[in-house]
Amino acid sequence: MRARDILTLVGFCALALGTTGCANRAQQDYAQLSSRYDEVQTQNAELRADLEATQQQQASLLAELDARNAELARTRMDAQAARQAPPSAQPAPQQPGVLDPRRGERIVLESDLLFPAGRATLTAAGQQKLTELASRIKSQYPNAVVLVYGYTDADPIRRTRNLWQDNLDLSANRAMAVSRALIERGISRERIETIAMGEAKPSAPNTSTANKARNRRVEVFVLRQ
């Protein structure tokens, strides 16, 4: 065999060996990548399971939070209703217009004395009446809480319906006028609460002129502390 043929044969052998070595390395690399892929897939599955468990826990916590918020709202509404319930809803006082002396005093002011018909601006007589009342409160109940409730009769507003949305609106403005007058006369703003009642809780059935006049009123509760 000539030298050139021998060299050619040696070259073919070397090439074959090199190709085999490359194939082996590729197979090794593929095996490593395949193993890494399976490992990542397993990790992803574990993370997905953790995420689903966390989402379920979050949903449960949100549901519990919503339930507690609803309960808190109901409790707040009940407390507000109890707080705003007029003391007149308590057992009947021992004397007309007077609460249990341990609690304080209830003063009923006729709206027809305090205000012109359908209005919330105090009359001169109303101003004088509230001056006397403020003086009594300051001297007899220096630390008392003062609750001012405004009431109307059940008749719809006619002559001044351009001023008020309804009876509740009128009662609110009348109660606020009385509260402002008391504040101007030295009663601490922090001690006064103003509540609009409209035509609710009438003193008498709205069946006569006299009864309607009784229902148009402002009640002032002076509560000892």
Question: Which strands sit side by side, in order, in the main sheet?
Answer: 1-4-2-3
**Alpha plus pi helix count:** 5
- Structural class category: alpha+beta
Q: Fraction of residues in helices?
A: 55-70%
SSE string, helices as H and strands as E: HEHHEHEHE
Query: What is the 3D form?
Result: elongated
Write down the Rg.
43 Å
Low-confidence stretches: 89-98
- Mean pLDDT comes to 80
Biggest sheet details: 4 strands, mixed
What is the number of strand segments?
4
Distance, first to last CA: 128 Å
Question: Beta fraction of the residues?
Answer: 5-15%
Task: Give a structural overview.
Helix 4 (167-184) links the parallel strand 2 (145-151) and strand 3 (192-198). This protein is α+β, with helices and mostly antiparallel strands. Mean pLDDT is 80; it is low at 89-98. It is built from 5 helices and 4 strands; from the N terminus they run H-E-H-H-E-H-E-H-E. Strands 1-4-2-3 form a 4-stranded mixed sheet. It has helices at residues 3-84, 111-114, 124-140, 167-184, 209-215, and strands at residues 104-110, 145-151, 192-198, 217-223.
Short description:
This protein is α+β, with helices and mostly antiparallel strands.
List keywords for this structure.
12% strand; alpha+beta; 225 residues; four-stranded mixed sheet; 5 helices; single chain
